[in-house]
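> example.struct
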């Protein structure tokens, strides 16, 4: 898989917003590939970033937003439903022929849903974190998010949206995903 190099802000809100921007760019890279076969590598990178990004948010960011935000339960529950739906769609997309029109249609649908979801996080959750945490806490949270992403599953797992399930199921799913990725990389 191609290594992604992005400037890594040292506080969590800037870090997650930078990943939201990167995700949008990666969707465009896959959807605008000149050759349908050239979609495979950027799609794998996009899929992995989506999986690790959402896992870290579910483990660390959403629980904090739930406790800091007015109507935190409603805000976070809506984001978790969006994440569940996106994971289910991404799982379906993984099974499609990457050169097919159906792949493009489904990925376009996912792109719209993911970008709407990111915007909702930025509007409905992040301001409460900025207001409720000092800069040192925001920096520590960014470090924790990066650590969670480093060990997170690399494929979507719909139904594993809670922090508790991610802590229990995540390490095992991550091990299996990373083994599957390595085997697929070797065997093509």
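> example.seq
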């Amino acid at each position: 898989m191609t290594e992604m190099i992005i400037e890594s802000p040292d506080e969590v809100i800037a870090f997650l917003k930078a990943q939201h921007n990167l995700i949008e760019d990666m969707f465009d890279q896959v959807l605008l590939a000149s050759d349908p076969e050239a979609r495979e590598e950027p799609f794998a990178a996009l899929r992995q970033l989506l999986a690790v990004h959402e896992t870290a948010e579910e483990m660390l960011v959403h629980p904090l937003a739930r406790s800091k935000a007015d109507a935190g339960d409603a805000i976070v529950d809506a984001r978790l439903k969006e994440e569940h739906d996106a994971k289910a769609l991404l799982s379906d997309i993984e099974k499609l022929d990457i050169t097919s029109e159906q792949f493009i249609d489904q990925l376009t649908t996912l792109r719209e849903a993911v970008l709407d979801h990111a915007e909702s996080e930025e509007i409905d959750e992040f301001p409460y974190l900025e207001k409720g945490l000092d800069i040192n806490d925001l920096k520590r949270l960014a470090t924790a998010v990066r650590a969670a992403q480093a060990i997170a599953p690399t494929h979507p797992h719909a139904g594993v949206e809670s922090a508790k399930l991610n802590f229990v199921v995540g390490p095992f799913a991550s091990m299996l995903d990373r083994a599957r990725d390595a085997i697929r990389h070797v065997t093509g």
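> remarks
The mean pLDDT is 88.
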